[in-house]
Amino acid sequence: MIRVFRSVPRALMVLGAAFVLALTVMRPLSASVFEPTVHYLSNGMRVVAISDMRAPVVLHMVWYGVGSADEPPGKSGIAHFLEHLMFKGTETTEPGEFSRTVSKLGGDDNAFTSYDYTGYFQRIAASRLGLVMALEADRMVNLTLDPDHFLSERQVILEERLSRVDSNPRSILREQAVNALYMAHPYRIPVIGWEHEIAALTPEDAIDFYKRWYAPNNATLVVAGGIDPEEVIRLAEIHYGPLEARDLPKREWVKEPPHSAPRTVELSDPRVGQPSWSRSYLAPSYAYGATEHAYALQLLTEILGGGTTSRLYRSLVVDGKIAVSAGSWYGASGLGPSTFGVYGSPADGKTIEEVAAAIDVELRKIMEKDVTPDEILSAKRRLQASAIFARDSVTAPARIVGNALMSGRSIEEIEAWPEKISAVTADQIREAAAAVLIERQSVTSILRPKPAS
Predict the structure, then answer these.
(1) Alpha-carbon distance 426 to 429, whole Å?
(2) Catalytic member of 83, 153, 256, 375
(3) What does the pLDDT read at residue 394?
(4) Would residue 252 show up in a list of annotated catalytic residues for this protein?
């Protein structure tokens, strides 16, 4: 799943992958981990506080229940565009004043857009939490748009798309592959938007989208760090409590139809130095499709592609010397359908076709034979070990909780994660593989070098 971050010079998927990985490997939000406190303001805004008094620093995050999947037809990119425009001032603050204020106080801030949600965050001293709440509450309802600022920011986004997507063969291929995988669901449209539709967006489009979706009753506040939960709630009541709730539109997404034929997307480009092959399969998530397979798929991707001890890496890279890299991916979070993917890049003297054939052999083995008890136990231990390190992050708790809640999960559901993972059997992994690794519901991506003319 991709997240577009404002003013961060990285590929669009990087932080999105980090979010999904963190959610996948974290232990649940049980009393022994985060001890989250949940409170609802009278206007419907959800407040979640996670206290960790090891340092007097907090991460303040506001998550809105709207993303690129909610955009009107022909207006792709407006959710991400509005994220940029939220830094352009309100009735009482100048453009850029929000970020300058946070910076002067020794903090940092940023924002992100995904298919399912949009988020804004500040990392700052706990003593300054009230100030950032006041600033965030202000722009939740009082955003102003100057036409000149709108036009200049639109050009910034067009240049962002040019540098991150249109100038990168791998990003071009990835975008085309995603569009081929989802035949009807709005996940088929890139979060950043199509170039010609971005260029046609107007200030009225942004204001309409803002007024439709940005409201306290469509927002979740998550604060994690060195502050007492009761103080978080007290400050939230002061700064967010007076904001009025709005009537919200119903989120209605087109459902994905059955897939009856595999598709292949291939790109040759002189800028490509290393050829690569990948295949994406339509897969369920925690909230969509055959959700009973989500936990088994998490273990399956760990067994298939979880590092240098995984089946794909051992078979293709270490033993077979066919590839220089091989692995898999899967993300269980998301309100819509997910993807399960495998990939490989051929070693010198080997071909993409040899890599594809070798990966297919390993997939058939998974479906024809149960994975071994040792493989399952090792995969579970690796996930738990990753959770230990993730728990100690200053920012991970707020990010993981927010991502989970905005993806349709409850804290109670997340708390049950270890038990669900521990209960997965070899038969369930095989059944999940058989249900998902179906060629007719896949898209194969091939990237090849092309001699410059």
Answers:
(1) 5
(2) 83
(3) 76
(4) no
